[in-house]
Design a protein that fits this description.
Radius of gyration: 18 Å
Helix content: 55-70%
Number of helices: 10
Oligomer: single chain
Number of strands: 3
Low-confidence stretches: 1-7
Distance between the termini: 36 Å
Strand content: under 5%
Length: 225
């Protein structure tokens, strides 16, 4: 059985469930039964309820009256909006990174890309998924901007649901190569190229989605219609 970080606090439960969603181990529409979660984590249902409320605020969980909690299933419109926000935010982040990055920070990003490559090559889907998303958060962390890092973490968590629901069979398998190209541009202090590569990368990820696919539902009648 998986364990939460020390203390099994509300924050630890939120972290564990978020990671399961980000790593595609929990499917959109999956029911999150309070008692089962309480038994799993060895805590009261009150702590579980608090964790689910926090996840609902982060848009990762949907709370339905009289039915319970479910892993959210973002609509196609929401998916497009999330990627539009990411392009705006990450373009600015990339510009700021170019202007302030040290050799140590560039080395840290190169090391991260090497981990991505290794995960892709060994076919470790959960690790690959987490690392590819964490690249963007890592940039913000290296800049020392915790507010930006948290904002990106929230967006990346929502993107994990989106890619799980809408990823097509022809999805790009070389995101880590695009990350490597971005790092090269950052190292060369080529601001315009770095920003262009970041925006193209995010556009490629969005274009790999089949946003016309009907999203899953937790409603039996709707699912069988």
């Amino acid at each position: 059985m998986d364990t939460t970080p020390a203390g099994s606090s509300t924050a630890a439960i939120v972290e564990s469930l978020t990671r399961a969603i980000v790593e595609h181990r929990l499917q959109p529409g999956a029911k999150l039964a309070e008692q089962k979660l309480a038994d799993h984590f060895g805590v009261s249902r009150t702590l579980v309820r608090q964790a689910l409320f926090q996840l609902a605020q982060n848009r990762l969980v949907t709370l339905e009256p009289a039915r319970g909690a479910f892993v959210s299933a973002p609509s196609a419109d929401e998916a497009r909006q999330v990627f539009a926000v990411r392009r705006m935010v990450e373009a600015g982040m990339t510009r700021a990174f170019v202007q302030s990055a040290s050799p140590t920070q560039i080395k840290a990003l190169r090391s991260h890309v090497a981990l991505e490559k290794a995960a892709v090559e060994r076919g470790d889907v959960p690790e690959r998924t987490a690392l590819l998303g964490d690249f963007h958060v890592r940039m913000a962390e290296l800049m020392g901007n915790e507010v930006l890092a948290q904002l990106l973490q929230d967006l990346l968590s929502r993107c994990a649901l989106i890619t799980l629901m809408y990823q097509s069979s022809s999805a790009a398998a070389h995101s880590y190569e695009e990350h490597a190209d971005i790092v090269k541009a950052l190292a060369a202090r080529d601001e315009e190229r770095a920003v262009r590569l970041m925006q193209e990368h995010l556009l490629h990820v969005e274009q790999s989605l089949s946003l016309d696919r009907r999203p899953p539902t937790s409603d039996i009648a709707a699912a069988l219609a």
